[in-house]
Target: ABC transporter ATP-binding protein
Amino acid sequence: MPRPKPLAPVVLEVSGLRKRFGTSTAVDDVSLTVRRGSIFGFVGPNGAGKTTTLSMVTGLLRPDAGTVVVGGTDVWAAPTTAKRKIGVLPDRMRLFDRLTGAQMLYYAAVLHGLDRSAARSRSDDLALALGLDGSLDRPVRDYSVGMVKKISLAAALIHSPSVLVLDEPFESVDPVSTAQAVDLLQRFAAAGGTVVLSSHNMDLVERVCDSVAVIVEGRILAAGTLDEVRAGESLEERFVELAGGRVAVEGLEWLTTFSD
Ligand SMILES: Nc1ncnc2c1ncn2[C@@H]1O[C@H](COP(=O)(O)OP(=O)(O)OP(=O)(O)O)[C@@H](O)[C@H]1O
Model:
């Protein structure tokens, strides 16, 4: 388990974020503090508000209230400066999927001001690290779901931002590629980079993250170091408790009657 960084400077400060969609509140007064060198896990049940929060953190969705400060820059007051510091893997990204993997990485690099040769060599490095070498010349629309995640992760990393915000980076990614991606994130954090990631994989969060926040129905119910949040239990047990426990499954007898 990675060690928390209690004395490291704060690089991401989220205060009082709120977002409503129509009459329902998706994110309700969310505040988070993430320190330099940390790998911070953001967990919660389906529909809890993770994607909505991370979209507001990265400047993709305007909050109704609250502030987000990345590396001393207010994301919503100075979005251009802030976005240079952030690498984003959104949950449901619309990709220019007629491009090949190589072209996608090239454009991600050039849009962030890298020159042609840095773009090429970084693309090759990332493709190798994430097991995409051999696939870079294929159009992204022909990629599998896991491959799309990996090329999107590579695109988030290519400009070496100081803060990475990754929405479910390991979903549909095979175990070998996940291990390689984790390795990459750990190297990034050890060198002083900061990672915020959401995941439904509690074992992985326990292995990789030093700090965690649990969001349920738009509110943070627990946040702190991994040990503080799991409070002597496994993260999964704690998560289930905070999320309101398991609901006993009743009815559904028809499910075992088999129509054939
Ligand atoms: N554009 C939108 N319009 C209306 N409601 C939305 C919109 N985006 C999200 N919501 C609602 O906000 C709530 C939070 O959704 P969000 O996608 O942030 O959850 P999540 O924690 O990321 O869920 P999951 O784990 O299933 O990905 C949900 O009730 C969802 O239906």
About this structure: The CA atoms of residues 230 and 237 lie 8 Å apart. The chain has a mean pLDDT of 92. The pocket of adenosine-5'-triphosphate is lined by residues 21, 26, 44, 46-52 (CB under 6 Å).
